[in-house]
Amino acid sequence: MPLTLGAHVGQQNMDMATMRATWRRLDAAGMDWISVWDHLYEAPPAGGTLAHYEALSTLGALCVETTNARIGCLVFYIGYRNPGLLAKAAVTLDHLSGGRFELGLGAGWHEQEAAAFGYDFPPLGTRFEMLEEGVQLIRSLLTQERTTFEGRHYRADDASCLPPPVGGRRLPIWIGGVGPERTPRLAARYADGWNGAYIGPEDYRKLNATIDRRCEDLGRDPASLDRTVNLMFMLAADEAGAAAADQRLDEQWGPMAARVRNGALMGTAARAAETIAKYVEAGARGVNIALRAPWDDDALSAYLGETIPALRKEFTTLRRV
């Protein structure tokens, strides 16, 4: 299985025309995956001071602006939308994209935006309960003619979700997160793929091994669960730019900077392949660069034009440890 390469493009701090042009550029460059994130405010949190677009409506545009890349959101916070609505939206986006949409779900983290918009943001354990119910309900709506479901947080009464995904296919569902216990359990039990974001290769290796064990506990072949990682794109065209990017990361993320830096592509584009190889050795089958405007456009051009071809040549078939 070849390594997949994608981009996770945050829909903030740029106008829609620029964002649409970026999507087309990434699609034309052969990216396997293009996703957005599900926030109402900017990330990292800045009190709602940056222009930011909503995820579902943005995805509609992304689906019709591209022709090749798989499309998704890494990940939708389960607390912002009823699972039935998400299932209907997923099918709609799948048809808009010609069968390229994949649905990512998570337990959320951006408490500041939830409070600002009046959403409840319960404790993490409750949010994982919501996620577990939500993924079951959505899977049923996407695969069964009729769904009746009664949970603590969600319910459905003889609901249908028509049309089904394009060609009657099984629309992939991803679980995103880096928690050591509940995320691996949910991914192994319910998901087609797991995505971890902004963690170092050794932490990724440990989580990947935990997911393997959870799959084996369930009698599931671990190879049937796809694995990807999101890495912050902080590359620069030269060493001076790399130093400036490192400083910018500290300014943007504050106390969270050390954690994010551990899961970022830092330095010049020439070093990117070496960093990505560490994640492949740790079990990642796909690597997505997380683009947060503004970025170094010369470095992005080098990544698309030089790093990606080199990676595709090296990882025609993935190694697994």
Tags for this entry?
8-stranded parallel β-barrel, TIM Barrel, alpha/beta, 11 helices, two-stranded antiparallel ribbon, 321 residues, 17% strand, 43% helix
What does this structure look like?
- This protein is α/β, with parallel strands linked by helices and 321 residues long.
- The chain has a single domain, classed as Alpha-Beta Barrel (TIM Barrel).
- Helix content is 43%, strand content 17%.
- The chain has 11 helices and 12 strands.
- The strands form 2 sheets. Strands 1-2-3-5-8-9-10-12 form an 8-stranded parallel barrel, surrounded by 6 helices. It has a two-stranded antiparallel ribbon with strand order 6-7.
- α7 links the parallel β9 and β10.
- It starts with a strand and ends in a 7-residue tail after the last helix.
Short description:
This protein has helices at 16-28, 55-65, 83-96, 111-116, 124-143, 182-190, 201-217, 239-253, 257-262, 272-281, 297-314, and strands at 4-9, 33-36, 70-73, 76-77, 101-106, 147-150, 155-159, 173-176, 193-197, 226-233, 264-265, 286-291.
